[in-house]
Specification:
The chain is an alpha+beta fold and 370 residues long. The chain is built from eleven helices and 18 strands. 26% of the residues lie in helices and 28% in strands.
Length: 370
């Protein structure tokens, strides 16, 4: 398994599958994984709902499981939380979404459209504040030029795009296969920061995520978003959640620089990046648009914040752009959040998701934790 590069100064919480036992809540102390699963907080959801999550992680009794990089089954670090995602939160990726729509999911047409309108739209959208009077003026100008898009509406309009990325407990962790729906022939990884938010709307930590993107499916119609986004093993989160403390805060999230590496079995290497400093909407605003009097999350939620990354590098043919091949190894990394690594497979070839909320409750009950 690839190294997770967890900062030893950080305060961490995650989950591992222990053979013969089941899912366990773990933290990191002195570079050792400590199983802290207990009646007081048998799930990660419960850990975050505590008034003093940081104190609990530092003091809860537990059992050492050894070095974090030794071979073990890492689960996604969330459990009962809903998994939500924000789209079109960066101007750069916003332009690519417009191009996808104009190309109707055809990668071969995208390059010509990119050359024709991409730069023009991007120039209009630089440093714009979503929902502002300036944004409305740009909207009207682009409508007059025939360049308006539903993606620009959520990109610079007053309302952010927030959708359900994955079902509760269906996300995969670092080291697992990540899945592509077999109908897709144009797709890519999306490196993102993922916030851990409580039922009260309090942001308590962050981790990394891969919001696997099927560009051809969503490009054919935005109404296919759910089919494009929510499939078996199509959501990777991890390796662990870094909890806010004196060493890490929401300001670190706002300035986070993510790197992406895709290594193919064909020798192809793609390097990319996403800079949170260029996000169009503040993370706290995205949380407020997700939870409030209009929508509650009793078990909290994980929130993907979107990405600046949109690959245009050709892989096979000139103008063909990038798309995944089976066996690609995807690594998303940040110096304060570690490294999330997954191998690309078809969703139909990844292990089926069979462990839902009812199974978790029965497992915890059998272990005397409920």
């Amino acid at each position: 398994m690839s190294k997770m590069n967890l900062d030893p100064a950080g305060l961490w919480v995650g989950r591992v599958e222990r053979p013969g036992i089941g899912p366990c809540v773990v933290t990191l102390r002195d570079n050792e994984v400590i199983d802290i699963t207990d009646k007081k907080a048998p799930t990660v959801r419960d850990v975050f709902e505590l008034d003093d999550t940081a104190h609990y992680l530092r003091t809860a009794p537990g059992q050492s499981l050894g070095d974090p990089d030794q071979n073990r089954h890492w689960l996604a670090p969330c459990d009962l939380q809903s998994v939500k995602a924000c789209g079109v939160t960066f101007a750069g990726s916003m332009v690519e979404r417009v191009i996808e729509e104009q190309a109707a999911g055809d990668a071969a047409k995208a390059e010509a459209i990119r050359a024709r309108i991409g730069a023009r739209i991007a120039d209009s959208l630089s440093n714009i504040v979503p929902g502002s009077t300036e944004a409305e003026n740009v909207k009207q100008a682009l409508i007059e030029e025939g360049l308006w898009s539903q993606y620009l509406e959520v990109g610079i309009g007053p309302d952010a795009e927030v959708f359900s990325k994955a079902q509760v407990l269906s996300s995969v962790g670092s080291g697992s296969d990540v899945g592509l729906h077999p109908i897709s022939t144009w797709n890519n990884p999306e490196p993102e920061v993922v916030l851990a938010v409580t039922s009260r709307g309090e942001i308590k930590g962050a981790t990394l995520g891969n919001d696997v993107n099927l560009r051809d499916v969503e490009g054919r119609s935005a109404l296919l978003l759910s089919k494009a986004k929510d499939n078996n093993a199509s959501c990777a989160i991890g390796p662990m959640i870094r909890v806010f403390d004196e060493t890490f805060s929401l300001d670190d999230v706002r300035q986070a620089e993510l790197t992406l590496t895709v290594k193919g079995e064909d020798g192809f290497v793609l390097n990319g990046a996403s800079s949170m400093s260029q996000i169009s909407r503040d993370p706290s605003d995205l949380v407020k648009q997700t939870i409030g009097r209009h929508h509650q999350y009793p078990d909290g939620f994980m929130l993907f914040l979107g990405t600046l990354f949109a690959p245009t590098q050709d892989r096979d043919t000139p103008g063909g752009g990038f798309t995944h091949k089976l066996g690609d190894i995807v690594t998303i990394e940040n110096e304060k959040l570690g490294a999330l690594t997954n191998t690309v497979r078809l969703s139909t070839e990844c292990p089926e998701w069979t462990f839902g909320a009812s199974h978790l409750m029965r497992n915890l009950a059998q272990r005397g934790l409920l």
